[in-house]
Predict the structure.
Amino acid sequence: MEERAKAEFRAMRETVGISQNALAASLGVQPRTLRRWEAEEERWEPPEDAWEELDALRADQERVVGFAVRKALSIREEMGGEPAEVVLPYPQGRDAETSMRRANARLCADRLRRHGLAVRFAAPDESDALRMAMEARAE
């Protein structure tokens, strides 16, 4: 396998929204070990299983974000034009899953904006209420 840079490992981890501590726990290593894998001045490199875990998380992220973007574009087409804005849930919390959901929301927003859609973040309960209102209006 082609050698990948430590900076790529860190960037990929940050892109999927998982903390060093959460990834270390998932891999069964100490957080200090993971910090060494990411530090340019350290000699330790991320092992293959760590790369595989990040690759799997990134693939999951692409699947989720891709689905959300396709759904938003489909709704735009069904409505016959641009909705005023797309409201994405942006949950609060410090746990790993919530952090990864926020990373997905940011990536989704970026892609939707590239398609010319206006995007706004809201608390999950507010975005659910807005989604239900839009569905009721569409009926």
Q: What stands out?
A: Strands lie at 86-89, 119-122. The longest strand covers residues 86-89. The chain has a mean pLDDT of 87.
